[in-house]
Amino acid sequence: MKNPIMTASGTFGSGREYVPFVNLNKLGALVVKSVTLNERSGNSCPRICETPSGILNSIGLQNSGIERFIAEEIPFLSSFDMPLIVNVAGESVEEYARVCALLEDVRGVSGIELNISCPNVKKGGMLFGQDPKMATEIVVECKKTTKIPLIVKLTPNIADNSIIAREVENAGADAVSLINTLMGMAIDIETFKPMLGNITGGLSGPAIRPVAVRMVWEVAKAVSIPVIGMGGISSARDAIEFFLVGAQAVAIGTANFIDPAATMNIVDELDSFLNEKGFKSIKEIIGQVKA
User: Fold this and answer.
1) Quick check: is 118 catalytic?
2) Could you give the dihedral angle defined by the CA atoms of residues 207, 57, 173 and 283, in that order, rounded to the nearest 10 degrees?
3) What pLDDT, in 10s, does the model give residues 245-286?
4) Rounded to the nearest 5°, which phi and psi values hold at 75?
């Protein structure tokens, strides 16, 4: 990675829409929206609504499926000089493993991010990321199908993420990323109806940053593998909070909707901060919070 600034899955598509605003070659890494084994149409509309200092979304992992992704998006993405990380989701352990197997021989894929905030349909809908055993099983089975580094994206909708983080590390995860969106709900008081067609959705944006910083701090102390921090980062100053508590890279999400050039601005602002403070590398401030 040229720098520690990545895109967050679900907020950057496959990069095409951002080409007029962003030099993709300047990114530390590009993380594409979630890809599943089969095509998904997503949740019912409306799928997104604004909240104070954030947004709620219930897109429902809409995508064209892994085979079309490989055929249609990989040729475009492989023309850029930046690591490509594919976010993978599924409804069963077998689906996760199958998608990873299909990516194994795809040239240009530098990493796979396992989105374990998905419901396991075989276990009554419980999120994979809420059960250490299920999270471990996903990593173990995916490791059997690919040698591509695996990043496990942790759900914040759990009491102690450190437990899950340690379990997936022991299972062979190469890194963890957090946080995914927080579950939330909004009501239209004129119609008395939920603002989202799916009733509940995932909350992202500046409102969740303090929660994300705390969780990254806890997880970074619990594991020895790299931690990627995300959640409400809109500026280099926001990103620096995550580095100080132990993140080795950060992903920019909702800020991309407000300013398509957010990642580029943060890369430049981060360089300016390091120069101003007399640091030669971001590594000098990682984990240096005085707590």
Assistant:
1) yes
2) -40
3) 999 999 999 999 999 999 999 999 999 999 999 999 999 999
4) -55, -40
Nearest residue to 100 via CA among 64, 152, 60: 152
The band of 138, judged by pLDDT with boundaries at 50, 70 and 90, is: very high
Are 6 and 250 within 8 A, CB to CB?
Answer: yes
Per annotation, catalytic residue among 45, 49, 118, 142: 118
Tokens of 71: 């055929």
Establish whether the linkage from the previous residue to 179 is cis, with ω within 30° of 0: yes
Q: What is the DSSP string of 119-180?
A: B-GGGTT-BGGG-HHHHHHHHHHHHHH--S-EEEEPPSSSS-HHHHHHHHHHHT-SEEEE--
Q: Which has the closest alpha carbon to 151: 230, 94, 79, 208?
A: 230
pLDDT at 119 over 90: no
CA-closest candidate to residue 34, choices 5, 18, 12, 55:
12
Which position has the token pair 């983080």?
A: 165
Check if the beta carbon of residue 201 is closer than 8 Å to that of residue 60. Answer: no
Element of type H or E holding 208: none
Q: What is the residue extent of each domain of the chain?
A: 5-284
CA distance 286 to 210: 18
The model carries a pTM of: 0.95
Local structure of 106: helix, strand or coil: coil
Q: Which CATH architecture has domain 5-284?
A: Alpha-Beta Barrel (3.20)
